[in-house]
Write a structure and sequence with these properties.
- Keywords: Metal-binding, Zinc, Zinc-finger.
- GO terms for molecular function: zinc ion binding.
- It comes from Cetraspora pellucida.
- The protein is an alpha/beta fold.
- The chain folds into five domains: 109 residues, no CATH class; 90 residues, Herpes Virus-1, CATH 3.30.40; 255 residues, Rossmann fold (3-Layer(aba) Sandwich), CATH 3.40.50.300; 188 residues, no CATH class; 84 residues, no CATH class.
- It is built from 18 helices and 27 strands.
- Strands 16-17-13-19-20-21 form a six-stranded mixed β-sheet, covered by helices on one side. Strands 1-4-5 form a three-stranded mixed β-sheet. Strands 6-9-12 form a three-stranded mixed β-sheet.
- Helix 9 packs across helix 10, helix 11 runs antiparallel to helix 14 and helix 15 runs antiparallel to helix 16.
- The radius of gyration is 33 Å and the shape is elongated.
- The two termini are 36 Å apart.
Length: 806
């Protein structure tokens, strides 16, 4: 059968004004069916959707009788397994020959109507200006990842990132850069579509309950297998029906299984892509967040958000990056109905890495999510479909963290998704004993029932507003960025107080006339000057590996980190400028041991730095004393005024120190009030570090060292800890005297710090340099690029966004 471009257009024009494509089921043996989604749109809209971007069509030849072309009046020779839909992403087509039966181009399921107030927001991007997709950053190529323009922002994106459609009655950017008007369907990128949906809540389908469920867990625990299994649980009533039907595989998977003859077989299902590296053993198969949406019988849409596994062999840096990406990904949604934390059943203890990651995860989540968290146990057939020994270990961990998450029937769900693996193996003609099939049939039933119970529970939960979690993490970042600068400034304030006290006592003891003293009548001050390093560096902070130097002509001392154990350290995931960071075990200097191979000291005495703090002695002119000398006031008056100025300076420094301590306590209170689990209190760690520095200084010069500096730092630490304990007790007892703190107040307190008379400018500079050093470190980090899997790289048979009907 052949059809010309003109005939194709005539067929469209002869269609009725109200076009309706009903469900088409193509039956094959074992009740397999392929479904189209119903589309009820006016003919003019449907026509523009089918013909969008086909600017020149000369001929369409050799359309196979085994393919489906989505015309309105005639559908011929539909194959039971193949669908070819209109080539709506082709911008200029001269000829279309012999369309491959492996291709799937889906109809525009999501049509968004731009109001007349909206228009394009960018200019048409030239093809040569973009080597990779502006959304997913995957490189373009002529065969598998072609360029497409978003008709809203004009940027170049790939097919996967431009599946959405919009109906516009306004200007749409064109290749020439000019606007054109008219009501028609246009391709837009995922970012523009999300922005438009955020601005148009009225486009949410009426009567549809949308559940957003986040899946989290250790690498290899079975999150992706759960999604594959769920797609089949809602499609088939039982395993027998699934065996006769066509299995759905949304996420590629590879596993080994023993057949009836005790031979090990490797089973590969699904078509791989860059996001699912099924061949990388030990690494998280899922490389980035991706959501999968299902349509249930009761008009409920369930969206599972799959995430990379934690505890990846790529290390702590990968976990921290994944947490960051998860937060960015869920930010596109308004709410979360549930968070599933996946655990393997019958684990007598949780791994150290997983305990850390659970704590880190809970510190990122707003406390309101605690009522939306459940625990999903996998591989439960061996524990009689229960959590086994994992539950006591989990309860012990939750008790230690004191997060208030309950573990009862409503929050514990047990699965054995091995039934999906059995189904996949059976479909690849691997033979099993009949008794094995009966075992997995029971496993299917139990797991499918648990899935139903899980969905019903999340429907009953109050949705969590994701903006609360995002605001929490923005404020959390402020606290983390300021922890070290504030502790460092506190140390420097105490040093300057000691300097002023010494100068005051010197003037009191002096009997010289002003003519002999005028060169000494200045305000002594030590400023912090940051020196940015070109590369991140690992240094040792042990007393035997540092030098104690005198600052200028003062008696004050500073620590110089002269032992550079790894001068160019590109280790990822390690916190900067803090000691006792476990991630430093991965530094090359440690060689995976507890001691440094360069200096011999323990790993916990080392620090990863991006800048060095130079303490500079500055003689600040006392303008008041200068004026009195010029006015030829008496020596006694000048000395008295000078002492008063020094005392005022000391009072001002103490007041700034008090403000800093109170603000740090407020920061910690905010995190404890709003996060499920407060993150590690870095301020205490930094105070401990600087107290240790002062002890090293004292040990180097015990006779000249000013003990007030060390004593006051220890006092500050003690007072901070006491206040934090009081706050903890008040939170536990739900004391109403604790006023809730908002993210806006955190921003205001940050600005207050930068306006401190003496220390404000230094704090601003230190925070900026800290962030700049972090950016430089990221720029120098090596990037490991995994090549494309050896398996098929064609487009996946099922899009993650496709809706599944039960």
């Amino acid at each position: 059968m052949q059809i010309t471009g003109a005939e194709y257009s005539n067929q469209l024009e002869s269609a009725s004004d109200e076009t309706s494509i009903e469900f088409i089921s193509v039956h094959e043996p074992y009740e397999t069916s392929i479904e189209f989604i119903s589309v009820h749109e006016p003919h003019e809209i449907f026509q523009s959707t089918l013909t969008e971007n086909i600017e020149t069509v000369e001929n369409i030849h050799d359309i196979s009788s085994t393919e489906i072309i989505g015309t309105v009046e005639n559908i011929h020779d539909i194959s039971s397994t193949e669908i070819i839909e209109p080539a709506e992403n082709i911008e200029t087509v001269e000829n279309i020959h012999d369309l491959s039966s492996t291709e799937i181009i889906e109809p525009a399921e999501n049509i968004h109507d731009i109001s007349s107030t909206e228009s394009f927001e960018g200019k048409w991007e030239n093809d040569e200006d973009a080597k990779e997709c502006r959304r997913c950053q995957k490189p373009f190529n002529a065969l598998l990842r072609r360029r497409h323009h978003c008709r809203r922002c004009g940027q170049l994106v790939c097919y996967e990132c431009s599946k959405e459609r919009t109906i516009s009655r306004d200007q749409i950017v064109t290749q020439s850069g000019n606007g054109k008007t008219g009501k028609s369907s246009h391709r837009i990128c995922t970012s523009c579509y999300d922005l438009m949906n955020a601005d148009h809540p009225e486009h949410v389908k009426p009567g549809v309950t949308e559940l957003n469920i986040l899946l989290l867990g250790e690498t290899g625990v079975g999150k992706s297998t759960f999604i594959n299994a769920f797609a089949n649980y809602i499609k088939f009533k039982n395993l027998d029906e699934a065996v006769r039907g066509k299995m759905d595989t949304l996420i590629p998977s590879m596993f080994t299984i023993m057949d009836a003859y005790s031979e090990q077989k490797t089973v590969v299902v699904g078509q791989t892509d860059e996001n699912e590296l099924v061949t990388n053993k030990g690494m998280s198969c899922t490389q980035g967040c991706r959501s999968y949406k299902f349509r249930m019988d009761d008009n409920t849409e369930v969206r599972f958000i799959d995430t990379p596994g934690i505890g990846d062999t790529k290390g702590l840096s990968s976990d921290e990056k994944n947490f960051e990406n998860i937060l960015k990904y869920i930010n596109q949604f308004d709410h979360l109905n549930g968070i599933c934390i996946f655990l393997k059943s019958n684990s007598t203890r949780l791994t150290i890495m997983f305990r850390f990651c659970i704590q880190e995860l809970l510190s990122h989540l707003h406390k309101d999510t605690r009522n939306n968290i459940v625990f999903c146990f996998t591989n439960c057939r061996g524990t009689f479909y229960g959590p086994g020994d994992t539950l006591p270990a989990l309860n012990e961990q939750l008790l230690k963290t004191d997060v208030g998450i309950k573990t009862d029937q409503s929050t514990l769900y047990c699965f054995d998704n091995e039934a999906f693996k059995f189904l996949a193996a059976f479909k690849q003609r691997i033979t099993f004993e009949e008794t094995i099939k009966k075992i997995y049939a029971e496993s299917w039933k139990v797991s499918a029932d648990a899935s139903d119970r899980l969905i019903q529970y999340f429907k009953s939960c109050t949705p969590h507003n994701i903006k609360d979690t995002i605001s929490l993490n923005n404020a959390r970042q402020i606290v983390m960025d300021l922890s070290k600068p504030l502790a460092e400034v506190c140390q420097n304030i105490q040093i300057n107080i000691a300097l002023a006290d010494e100068k005051k006592e010197e003037i009191k003891r002096c009997d010289s006339v002003i003519a002999d003293l005028k060169d000494k009548l200045y305000i002594p001050q030590i400023d912090l000057r940051l020196i940015q390093l070109n590369y991140p560096r690992t240094v040792c902070t042990s007393a035997s590996c540092v030098k104690v130097l005198t600052v200028g002509e003062t008696k004050m001392q500073k620590i110089d980190y002269v032992t550079h154990c790894h001068k160019r350290c590109y280790l990822q995931g390690v916190e900067f400028n803090v000691i006792n960071n476990k991630a430093l075990l991965g530094c090359r200097a440690m060689r995976r041991t507890n001691n440094c191979q360069v200096c011999g000291c323990s790993w916990n005495n080392h620090m990863h730095i991006t800048y060095e703090n130079e303490q500079v002695s500055v003689d600040k002119v006392d303008e008041n004393i200068k004026l009195l000398i010029n006015e030829k006031q008496s020596d006694q008056i000048i000395k008295e005024e000078y002492i008063i100025d020094l005392e005022n300076r000391i009072s001002q420094l103490k007041e700034e120190k008090r403000i800093i301590n109170n603000i740090m306590i407020t920061f910690a209170l905010f995190l404890r009030q709003n996060a499920i689990a407060p993150f590690n209190d870095a301020y205490i760690d930094y105070l401990d570090h600087f107290i240790n520095e002062e002890k090293i200084k004292k040990g180097a010069n015990p006779t000249t060292y000013n003990n007030d500096v060390l004593n006051e730092l220890e006092t500050s630490r003690r007072e901070y800890v006491e206040k934090m304990e009081t706050i903890k007790d008040a939170i536990v007892t739900d004391n109403s005297s604790l006023t809730p703190i908002s993210p806006e107040e955190i921003n205001n307190l940050e600005n207050q710090l930068y306006h401190l008379t003496i220390s404000g400018q230094t704090l601003q500079m230190m925070k900026d340099e800290t962030k700049r050093g972090y950016i430089n470190a990221i720029n120098y980090h090596e990037i490991l690029h995994n090549s494309t899997s050896r398996f098929s790289i064609m487009q996946k048979m099922f899009s993650p966004s496709k809706l599944y009907k039960r």
